[in-house]
Amino acid sequence: MVENLNIDFLIEKAKSVLKNSYAPYSGIHVAAAILTRNGNVFLGVNVENASYGLTICAERSAISAMITAGEREPVAVAIVTDLDKPIPPCGACRQVIAEFNPETTIIMHSVKTGKTIIRNLKELFPNPFSLERK
């Protein structure tokens, strides 16, 4: 876990864009805030599509914003939802986050209940795919 991580700040940043989520099909609204090693925060929301496979998750949306800004080192990701329970990143998002830092702190929060769960990505995704040969 990241020392001196302001969890509440990162959750609030994600909550600030949750209303922008576009989820007319599932009705599940998700927002993400990524904190980088440089101390910058990048935001994303889920954007669904009638062609379901074209849907993008909030976490990958935020990763894209991070990469677009020229950063490559996430240290924490806050994932906020309006569901009753906090939700973890999906498998695709776990793989994408692991591409940049398999030790990322994952903060999952439900705005409905106020419950927060914190895990290291390695706990959620111990063996990401890699092209490295060891």
From TrEMBL:
UniProt GO BP: nucleobase-containing small molecule metabolic process; pyrimidine-containing compound metabolic process
Catalytic residues (UniProt): 59 (proton donor)
Keywords linked to the UniProt accession: Hydrolase, Metal-binding, Zinc
Signal peptide start-end: none
Main enzyme class: hydrolase
UniProt: Zn(2+) binding residues: 57, 90, 93
Annotated substrate binding sites: 46-52
Gene Ontology molecular function, alphabetical: cytidine deaminase activity; identical protein binding; zinc ion binding
Enzyme nomenclature, EC number: 3.5.4.5
Record's GO cellular component terms: cytosol
Pfam families: dCMP_cyt_deam_1 (PF00383)
InterPro entries, alphabetized: APOBEC/CMP_deaminase_Zn-bd, CMP_dCMP_dom, Cyt/Deoxycyt_deaminase, Cyt_deam_tetra, Cytidine_deaminase-like
CMP/dCMP-type deaminase domain sequence ranges: 5-132
Catalyzed chemical reaction(s): cytidine + H2O + H(+) = uridine + NH4(+)
Family recorded in the similarity comment: Belongs to the cytidine and deoxycytidylate deaminase family.
Protein's job: This enzyme scavenges exogenous and endogenous cytidine and 2'-deoxycytidine for UMP synthesis.
NCBIfam families: cyt_deam_tetra, PRK05578.1
Protein name per its UniProtKB record: cytidine deaminase
Organism: Staphylothermus hellenicus (strain DSM 12710 / JCM 10830 / BK20S6-10-b1 / P8)
Source organism phylogeny: Archaea, Thermoproteota, Thermoprotei, Desulfurococcales, Desulfurococcaceae
